[in-house]
């Protein structure tokens, strides 16, 4: 969390000083400041911020407009920190893409706690996504998000269709699929007699992931039914 880059956008120098002190005391060492919306947008275009804190009332416009511009290009979490406290103000903030709306006056410690909570949510969600898209079967692993196949720790090149076919098997271990079903899932159309294409791709994948392709343990042919992927613990 100490590596998080935070941008504070406000033209109140006393408030910026207070927030900088509070955040640095909690271990945030990469806190940036801007006093105008234009400066904030310029900085956001150059720096991959993890969170942006906006005042609604800025010298060159309002924070709602800045938030709208940010949302055109980024999903970075955005907090509004402002003296505008009506329900309409808050609804407007959320409608343009804010993740939180903090009204002045506020307790700096509560502010930092909310920043920490938001960053933790983002980090936890990213870890969940990573866990969901990495399939580890012992001898080989497939990272669907990064498009990487590794066999015994080494990256192995494969075609887009091979990767998509293996990813489909990884998502459905121990399930048998006919060649026509696999063709429909991977190629996106009916096979119309092209089932042999699936067999060719499975043969190629076996050469890449199996220790002995002629005696496969992972990608198995179930006679008369189709193919299935057997996880390592079941394939020993």
From TrEMBL:
InterPro entries in alphabetical order: CheY-like_superfamily, OmpR/PhoB-type_DNA-bd, Sig_transdc_resp-reg_C-effctor, Sig_transdc_resp-reg_receiver, WalR-like, WH-like_DNA-bd_sf
Domain Response regulatory residue range list: 5-119
Modified residues (4-aspartylphosphate): 55
Pfam family name, one: Trans_reg_C
GO terms of molecular function: phosphorelay response regulator activity; transcription cis-regulatory region binding
PANTHER family in alphabetical order: REGULATOR OF RPOS, TRANSCRIPTIONAL REGULATORY PROTEIN YVRH
Name of this chain's protein: DNA-binding response regulator
Chief location of this protein within or outside the cell: cytoplasm
Keywords: DNA-binding, Phosphoprotein, Transcription, Transcription regulation, Two-component regulatory system
CC terms in the record's Gene Ontology section: cytosol; protein-DNA complex
Native organism: Thermoflavimicrobium daqui
Superkingdom to which the source organism belongs: Bacteria
OmpR/PhoB-type domain ranges (all copies): 132-231
DNA-binding region: 132-231
GO biological process, one term: regulation of DNA-templated transcription
Locations listed in the record: Cytoplasm
């Amino acid at each position: 969390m100490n590596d998080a880059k935070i941008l504070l956008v406000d033209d109140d120098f006393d408030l910026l000083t207070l927030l900088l002190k509070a955040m640095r005391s909690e271990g945030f060492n990469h806190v940036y400041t801007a006093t105008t919306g234009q400066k904030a947008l310029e900085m956001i275009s150059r720096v991959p911020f993890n969170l942006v804190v906006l005042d609604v009332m800025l010298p060159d416009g309002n924070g709602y407009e800045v938030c709208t511009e940010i949302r055109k290009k980024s999903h970075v979490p955005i907090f509004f920190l402002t003296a505008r406290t009506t329900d309409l103000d808050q609804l407007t903030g959320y409608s343009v893409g804010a993740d939180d709306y903090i009204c002045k006056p506020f307790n700096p410690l509560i502010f930092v706690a909310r920043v920490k909570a938001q960053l933790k949510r983002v980090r936890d969600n990213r870890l969940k996504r990573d866990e969901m898209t990495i399939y580890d079967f012992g001898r080989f692993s497939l990272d669907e998000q990064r498009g990487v196949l590794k066999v015994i720790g080494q990256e192995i090149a494969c075609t887009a269709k091979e990767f998509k076919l293996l990813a489909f098997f990884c998502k459905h271990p121990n399930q048998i699929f006919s060649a026509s079903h696999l063709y429909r899932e991977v190629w996106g159309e009916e096979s119309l007699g092209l089932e042999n294409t699936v067999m060719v791709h499975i043969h190629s994948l076996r050469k890449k992931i199996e220790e002995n392709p002629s005696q496969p343990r992972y990608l198995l042919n179930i006679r008369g039914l189709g193919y299935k992927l057997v996880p390592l613990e079941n394939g020993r």
